[in-house]
Design brief:
Layout: H1 3-20, E1 23-29, E2 49-57, E3 63-65, H2 71-83, E4 87-93, H3 98-106, H4 110-125, E5 129-133, H5 142-155, E6 160-165, H6 176-179, E7 185-187, H7 206-218, E8 226-231, E9 233-238, E10 257-259, H8 260-266, E11 273-277, E12 282-286, E13 290-294, H9 297-309, E14 314-318, H10 331-339
Parallel strand pairs: 1-2, 1-14, 2-4, 4-5, 5-6, 6-7, 7-8, 8-14
Antiparallel strand pairs: 2-3, 9-10, 9-13, 11-12, 12-13
């Protein structure tokens, strides 16, 4: 290869890496219906992929909606994602289903039937693929997890197969060789600020996300597959006076949880002083009665910039119902402006 060809190859490789960060994934859990957020409320121009959570496995390898009341909403979601050119990925597993997944993966008879059932479910109900969501893994489960993921990739060649991982359980619970066969890997962080924390720390920040992604990559998972999951909620702590201060338990919200959209309403008043913590790259809001730690525009922009600079696959948000609808303060738009700047994110006028 001559010098010019080598230089061109390097340039094209750099462009390919930069172009890899083009996914904006939005999680849409079945319980969104109970907060009056429906498929019609999704701003489809802000996402490339919607992840529906969940369908759950039965002991015989069968599959069913986690909540049958959401079947009609799912049909609407299928129609609207197709209409808007957005991929629909269906989460399989989820909370409290790890025992069933383990039993299926352990059986040479059940596993192929399970894979076949997943394909049949998608064919009957719709969706472009699935995401394996096996929670509370241990190192002892690593072989079985890899076995199931490989079986899904091999058996669902006509569909997109992704995986969500939880590095907090330890990367020894995952085999990089299996994860590297997935279309992409969503990296779910843990809440860093809990009621057990004696002093207030950021719940999530661009620095902690970057550190987690580096740990996952160091374990052998390809960087160009990684999609960090950003939380679209803050956590409030009564009596706290900012980062590093003590608290007296949960503050306002639902047991201290506040959707980003609700935070924007709170911060319209002069009661809160909102600052950006450079050390953690996260936001902090302090009032006379409480402190709220959350991810805002500067921190989410920093995550998207990092993902783009490292040639990762994209950024995900959890969940779609919690973003603020106005583009100027939307975290989905903040991500999109970094990863998909060509999209028109301006709010459409109501007729």
């Amino acid at each position: 290869m001559n010098i010019k060809s080598f230089a061109l190859a390097l340039t094209l490789g750099f462009v390919a890496a930069q172009a890899a960060a083009d996914k904006v994934v939005g999680y849409f859990p079945y319980w969104s219906q109970y907060s009056q957020f429906y498929p019609k409320d999704i701003r489809y121009n802000t996402v490339t992929n919607v992840h529906y959570s969940f369908i759950v496995p039965g002991e015989d390898g069968s599959l069913a909606f986690a909540d049958e009341n959401d079947a009609t909403n799912f049909k609407t979601l299928v129609d609207l994602t197709k209409e808007n050119g957005v991929k629909l990925i269906v989460g399989v597993g989820g909370m409290e289903n790890e025992g069933t997944l383990k039993a299926i993966a352990s059986s040479d008879e059940l596993l192929p039937q399970f894979v076949s059932n997943v394909g049949s479910w998608l064919s009957a109900n719709g969706g472009d693929g699935i995401e394996l969501d096996w929670q509370n893994l241990t190192a002892e489960d690593a072989e079985l997890y890899a076995k199931m993921l490989n079986a899904l990739v091999d058996g669902l060649s006509n569909y997109t197969v992704t995986a969500v991982i939880y590095p907090a359980v330890g990367m020894d619970a995952y085999k990089a060789e299996a994860l590297n066969r997935a279309a992409y890997v969503d990296v779910f962080m843990t809440d860093l600020m809990t009621e057990e924390s004696s002093t207030v720390v950021p719940n999530q920040g661009a620095v902690s996300i970057q550190q987690t992604l580096e740990e996952v990559a160091a374990a052998g998972v390809q960087k160009d597959l990684l999609v960090p999951v950003v939380f679209l909620y803050g956590k409030s702590w009564i009596g706290a006076k900012g980062l590093g201060s003590s608290h007296q338990g949960y503050g306002s919200g639902n047991e201290g949880y506040l959707p980003y959209a609700e935070l924007m309403g709170k911060f319209d008043s002069p009661d809160y002083t909102v600052t950006f913590d450079e050390a953690s790259k996260s936001e902090v809001a302090v009032s006379e009665s409480e402190t709220i730690v959350f991810m805002g525009i500067p921190s989410v922009k920093a995550v998207a910039e990092y993902v783009k600079s490292e040639g990762m696959s994209g950024v995900a948000v959890y969940d779609l119902s919690q973003d603020f609808h106005e583009p100027i303060v939307s975290l989905l738009v903040t991500i999109g402006l970094q990863l998909r700047p060509e999209v028109n994110y301006k709010a459409t006028k109501k007729k």
